[in-house]
Amino acid sequence: MLKEHATYYYMEDNCNCAEAVLLAANKEYGLGLPDECAKLVGGFGGGMGCGNACGALCGAISALGAVKMGRRAHDDPAFRQKCAQYVKGFEEALGHTQCSELKKLHATQAQRCLKTVQVACDVLESQLAGTAKE
After folding, report:
1. How many domains is the chain built from?
2. Which residues does 50 contact at the CB level (< 8 Å), separation at least 6?
3. How far apart are CA 89 and CA 64, in angstroms?
């Protein structure tokens, strides 16, 4: 369902890639984040507006933090490893982590970066594999 929620937010609710992934995770995992949380990741869309790190990747890392991180990242040494594991899985699935490169590989005019958003969700779902907030 995560992918379906993200597809809705991205294609129907006009969210960018980062917003769509975080809002989808919020809904799917019952994180209890206010809808305004999208404002915190909105700037990551389009690779921070300049083609750098993929916004869907950044949104997924934000969601991973909401699900898996303790109070502070510095207090949770395992969280860094979880992030690195996610990035590795994302790159293996899509061939890159940079927005500008991913657009060349996967974007279409009709669906923009929907495939990247969906794969970001698949990788996140796979990593979380039904775990609850720790």
Report:
1. 1
2. none
3. 13
